Structure formats: structure tokens, C-alpha cells
Amino acid sequence: MPIATTTEINRAHRRFAIAPMMELTDRHYRYLARLLTRHTLLYTEMLTCQAVIHGDRDYLLGKHDSEGPVVLQLGGSDTTDMARAAVIGEQMGYQEINMNVGCPSDRVKAGRFGACLMAEPKLVRDVVAAMQDAVSIPVSVKCRLGIDRDDSYQALADFTEQVALSGCRYLIVHARKAWLDGLSPKQNRSIPPLRYEYVHRLKREFPALHISINGGIDSLDAVAEQLHHVDGVMVGRAAYYQPAMLATSDQRVFGDLPDGLQHNASFESLSAVARSYARYMQSMLESVDQGPRLNTMSRHLIALFQEVPGAKQWRRHLSEQASKSRDAIALVEGALDYLVHETRRTA
Ligand SMILES: Cc1cc2nc3c(=O)[nH]c(=O)nc-3n(C[C@H](O)[C@H](O)[C@H](O)COP(=O)(O)O)c2cc1C
Description:
The protein is α/β, with parallel strands linked by helices. The chain has 15 helices and eight strands.
């Protein structure tokens, strides 16, 4: 099975990452992503430090050995609790802790964390320093360009300077600001304009920091272009909604030649990935008491095939049948049949 063998994050991994996304980048998605790419850095969904400290750790933080390098993203602003949660994350096998300074939701703002912390750079510095003191793995920060009217390049540079004072070396910048009043989280991912030039300038002015760019990057060509300006690129929605792009990332971003069927975006290769994932889903259904339902895992497969004959039927079959079934192999084979049948019919 083409699974990452290394568990340490090295500089190469940081070239390309799949963004943390609530409700999307759960452990099952990460397993699927790892079937498609050995080297891409993966993130969890954001978890609050309170949930990590008080919640069901296996449920919230459990991860499969074969997920390889994964970054745990935490939300919070209490130095003691964030440090405690970071320690738990390290114990649970994560390779890095990331602090969320980018989420604009009302709930997060009310809890005084996420994007509103762009206005409190010294607090971010102190939280990151406390986490770094508590763990032996790296700590990174994911932030926005700014918030509300405080969106000058200088404000971003001042924020970055404080973060760097904590000793943190890794910054990921979603290259648009967040409007905390009046825009929903979804609107905040599309309405404020992208300003890649701010992030490029940040890299020039803070050359010792490892700076990754995020926001609106939707192809490996665009990733390659950004890598001329910054150290790393993080992709969110495109990675989730066009997962086939991940199948060529090892070769195109990391220069690693594919070693077999998987790791290219051919129909045969993606079918092999779907079958491997079906075996994983079946093993989860059989081995875990009160384990996940089939449709919570199979939903991640829905976008795997696009623009090929039968893709619509593939999606419909998975969406309609998953909630009625406990046989992952039959579910995926049934959906693959549509692709094979339609490909033959239209050949
Ligand atoms: C459904 C969804 C959930 C998200 N959840 C998180 C999150 O938990 N933590 C975070 O830092 N960003 C979160 N984001 C933002 C992404 O990490 C990323 O910054 C944003 O989507 C822009 O990148 P993209 O244009 O490549 O998607 C989320 C985005 C989406 C679409």
C-alpha cells in the first residue's frame, strides 16, 4: 500500500500541504489523501484546546499509523490550556501543532481565538512560546493578512515579527483578510480579495521564516508558480473537491517518480485508490466498536472521478447507497461498475 513511511516533517514536506478544514479533513479523508500522495503534508480539522483536554481523545485525535506526517491544528488563546492541549497532541502521535489565527466564525470570535487574534500579536507570541516550551515537536501559526480595517502590509509585518519573537519558524498565511462583522466564514473565504503580493513581500522581508501561502490556489501549475516566491503552498478546497490533483503531486511538487499504479491520475490508478480505500472502510466497519458509519467515510470518495464517462453515476451511487449499506467493498465496486460501463459505452 503506498503509504507514507516517515513520520517526521522535513523541509520537503512543507512545500505542499492540504489545509485544515472542519468537517472535511477528518482521519478518513487523511487516509484517502495519503493513498494519493506520500509526501504532501496533512492537517487535522481545527480542534479547540478545551475539546482536546476534556473530550474523547480517541474519537477526536485518533489517527491511523499510515497517515504519516500530520499537523494538529488547535484553536484557543489561553497559554496554559493551549500548552496542555499541545502536549496531548504530541502524545497522540502528531508531528506538529498549528495555532489557528484565521478562523472568522462568531463562535470562535466569542471564545477569543481564531482570526480576532490578529489584533493581539503579543498574546499569539505568548501562546506559541508556551506551546513550544511544552512540546518537542514544531509549532506553527496559520493566519490571515489582517482583520477588518486593520489590513495594511505593516500590520501583517508587525504580527509576523511578534510571532517570530516566540521562536516560531513556520507561518502559513491565508492571503486575504477576514471581515469579522457581517461576513459568514464561507463569504470570508471568497469575498475579501486575495493579495498574494503581501505574502511574497513577507517572505522577502523575513527570509529566516518558512512562509507558506494559502488561498485560491487550485492547480499544481499554480502551486509551482507560488513556489518561486514562498517556501510552501497550502491548498484547501481544490484538494478536497478535486482529489485527483493529489495523485500527481508527488511527482510534480516533490520530484518523486511514481512506483506503480497509484500516484498518477489515470483511471486505473484512481480505481486502485478507490479499492484500497474501500478495504480501509470495511476494516473500520468491522474492527471498531461503535465505529464510523459507512457514509461518513465514503463521502470523501465522491469527487475522486470527474469529467469521465459515468462520473455522475459514480457520485449518485455513493451518495444514495452509502447510508443503506455496511459493505464498503460492494458499495465501491458498484460505483466503479458505472464508470467501466459508461467508458465502454461511449468508447
Ligand atoms: C469547509 C471548510 C472548513 C475550514 N476549516 C478550517 C479550519 O478548521 N481551520 C483553518 O485554519 N482553516 C479552515 N478553513 C480554511 C482553509 O484552511 C483555507 O484557509 C481556505 O479554504 C482557503 O484556502 P483554499 O482557497 O485553498 O480553499 C476551512 C475551509 C473550508 C472550505
